Every structure is written in C-alpha cells, then in structure tokens.
Task: structure prediction
Amino acid sequence: MEQDHAFDDAVIRAELAKYLTLRDMANLCLTSKQSFDWFVPHLWHTRAFYTNLKDIPGLKRYQKYVKVIQDLAINLAVESRDFWAFPNLQSVEFVPQSTGLFRGYTGFGSYNSAYSHHTFGGLPQGGVNAARVDLRLVLLLQSMPLLQDLTITLALDNSDVFQHFFASLQSLTQLRSLKMTCNEYVNPTHIQRVIHACRQCEELDFSFSGGDSFKGVEEKEEYEQAKLDMEVMEDLAVKTLKLATTLEDQEAAIMVPLLKKCPMLQELHMFTIKAPETVNLLKEAFLNGACPQLSIFHPGPDGVLKDDPLPVLLSVMGPDRGVNAVGLAKIDIISAHFKPESALAMTEHLSECLTEVHFRDHVMNFEVFNELVTGLPLLQSLRARINEISVQTVDINKFDQMCSRDWVCLGLKKLRLGSQLTQGIPTVKGESWKQSLPKRCMDYMFSQFAKLEQLEEWDFIAGPVDLFILAAGGYLRQLSELKSLKKLGLGPRTVYRMGAKEAEWVAENWTSLEWVDLGCSSMPVHIMDISRVKADKLALDTFIHTLRSRRPKIVFCRV
Result:
C-alpha cells in the first residue's frame, strides 16, 4: 500500500517552515503544485512591507493566507483602491505616515514623544491626503473578522475617520488587544466611545497628545459629557492597561473614570501625571475599590508635579485598601528619582504582597536600599543599584543601626544588584580598603547574602574590587549555603583574582551552578578609572579551566 508523503501532515509542514527562509520557501513553491499548496500559506503567513511596495500584488493574490501584517500602513492604504479581504488575519501593525508621526517606547510604559516627520506640504509621502489614507485603513479593518491584535495610529479628529473606525471596532468581535496612538486633539467623547467599543479586549494601550487644556466653552462641554459617559459605561474586561496623555483634562475626564471600570485589571502602566488634583482622584478611586485585582504597576518616568505622587499611590495599592484587593505583587520603576518616602510606603503598605521590585534608572542611597530589604519579607526578585557610600551619602549616626538590621527577604530567587560602594578602591589587600566605610558595609551585605539559600540567579556588579576570593578580605567562603544558585554574573570591570582554589570551592559548594558570566553588563554601573590595576589573567584562566574540569556542563561568558 502506498504511504502518504510525510509533508501531508500539516503539523510537520508548519514545524519545517519555522526553519526555512523566505527564499527557501519561495523556491519550494516553484518545484511542484503540491509543494506550492504546502508552502504558500507559510510564505505569506507574516508580511512586513515598510516602504517597499513590491510585495503588494502578491499580498492581494494570497491574502487569504495572511495572519500577520507589519506595515507602514500608507503603502497598503494607497494600494487598496479595490476591495481587500483578509479572512484569516489575526494581528496587524499599522504605523501610518498619514499623520506624519511615529510612536515609540523606551521601556515599560514609557512614552517617547520624539517623532519623525515624513510629510511634505501637509501630505504624506506619495502625495496622498492623510485623512483619505486613514479612512481607507479603518475601512480595511472591516475585512478582518478574526483580528485579535491591532496597532494603529489615527487622526480621530476627522469625523469620517472616527465614525468608520468606531464601526470597524464594533465588527471586530475577536479583538483582544488594541494599541492606539492619536497625535492630535481628539474629542473626549470619541475616546469614550472607542473605549466602550473595546470592552471585550484584554489589553488596551492608549496614547493621546495635543494642546494643553481646553480653550473654550465647546471643549469644556465635551469633557463634561465624556466624564458622564464614562461614569455610566459598563465594566471592561481589560487586564493590561497602558495610558499616556499630554492633556491634564483627560486625566479627570477619561483616565480616573476608566480605572473605576476595570474590575479585572491586573497590570497598569501609567504615564506622567500632570494635574495635582489627579493624585487625590486616584487615591479616592483606589480606596473605593477601583481595580481590586491590580498586582503589577509600572509608574511613569519623572513627573512634572511639585510633590511626587508615587508615595500616595503606593499607599493605596496594598491589600488593606479593600476586602477584595489583592495588593501589588510587582513594581517596575523607570524613574531616575525614587524618594525615601516611596520606600517607606512600600514597606508599610505592601509588605504582605510585594514579591518583585525592579528599578531601571534610579541609583539609590544605602539607607533606601536597606529599608527595602529589611521591610519586604515576601520579596523574590530585586533589581537595584546602590550609590557610592561615603560621609556625604550616608548618615553616619544611623550607619551602625542600619548594619545591625537583618534582611527579611530570605526567599529571594533573583537578585540583580549594581553597587558603587567600592568605588575607587582597587584591591581588598590595600589599607584603604581595610579601614574604609565600604568594607564595613560589604561585611554587612555579605553576611546577609549568605542567608539567601533560595537564591537562583545573582548578578553582582561592584567592581573594581574582586570580593569572590578565599583570601583575607574576600567573602566567597561565607556563601557556602547558596546551594540553589544556578546563574552568577560578575561585573565587567572587576579586578579578578580568582584562581584554582576558588574554582575548587565553587565546584564543591555551589552544586546547582550552570552559568557564570564574568563580563556581566546587566546593570550599568560606572566605575572610576582602574587602569593602574590589572586583573590577574592567569589566575582567571586557571579558575575557568579548573571549574570546567570539575563541572563540564557549566557555561562561561567573559569579557
């Protein structure tokens, strides 16, 4: 009996297609009608056009196979003069040149307002009217019944564009994620209607910009009406919400009422708050039960307010704010400024729920760091940088008291810690190190590291001093209880002195270790010039060779 060809199995073809280039699949499509039928759907699964129009005819011919489109949408809009239909399209990313603007992200929830302009005399490239391109785009959406993820930039101040976009959203019953940018003023009632049309979405990402406050009676009435509409709107299914606006009036009319309609919200990215009264409105909303399932919070970058709103917001995001509130489990802070008041708010209100704290740009003083590790018992993941320790950065009168406090976060599994505590001290053998304030601090720090028996991943960048040695002044011997450690990253500018003895010790004590990164750059820490001191390359090579001979499966990365 003749057996079926192996490629007759669609699962096998799909798996094979993952390893083929577009050229490979195109060549296979030319070998036979059977192979054409097999690989054309995969060849046209994802299309990224950008500024090249050469694929447009093929897209039209094989549109029924397309599931993902990534496109500078003016190209598709200009070419879509005839009817298009994408019955299987699931994800589309339209970044149109029609508004002359692009949107970008620099981190979790951080908004990049530096746009690139590609218009000439008010018209986008190709001389096509911007509103006409936007209109073709929103009409095109109506040919995508299975669309789940949509990224789009529109000028919703055009009434025709808005009406057809609203109708398209109502027809997209499978839509789960909407990422929308509006670069001009938008009637707030239009924003409310768009939000309402996306009530089944699980992820919403909105960015609005334009002039500052309303300029007249008409705009004031629009905001008042939008606020009323928001208050009577039914609850949304959204679980992840990202908000960015340059308009103070939208905070009270749209942002705060929106949060009251998100009972299932789990993750919130909030851009800079501009109106002082918004802080009190948010506090009142959270205390009255808004977003009870909120567990992940990404506050925005440095704010424009005189008083930092973060301590107030953190104080009303704990499990004690309501019967059904779960409390924050993760905070990701991208601001370069984090005040001691925020650390106190964390330890006072979030100690019973907070498990992850990540700092992106902030370099904190030792006192703030000490407050976190001694006040957050459930902490499992921490990313932080500590400033250089000196009489200028530390209250000497409190130093001994801080160093007597035990860490309570003994369940830490991931620790990414950058430190400037040893700044300017080239070696642990010198008198400048033995008599220094940083040594007293490191003695305390490593006594606490030694207790982290559940630690699995540890990046520690504190150069130039090599603290992971067995000789006097080193701390490696204290760390024998880190049996769960799998990944170790050490700073790229460390003056390495580790050799065969250290390798033998690591092989014997860190039995779970799988990865050693000796050029770790996960934490940007500026170290003063250490050109006068060279790492012991022979000792380091011996360390690697010895450890590899004892534990062949360990992976090494080095500078």
Summary: The two ends are 60 Å apart (CA to CA). Residues 98-127 have pLDDT under 50 and may be disordered. The chain is about 35% helix and 15% strand.
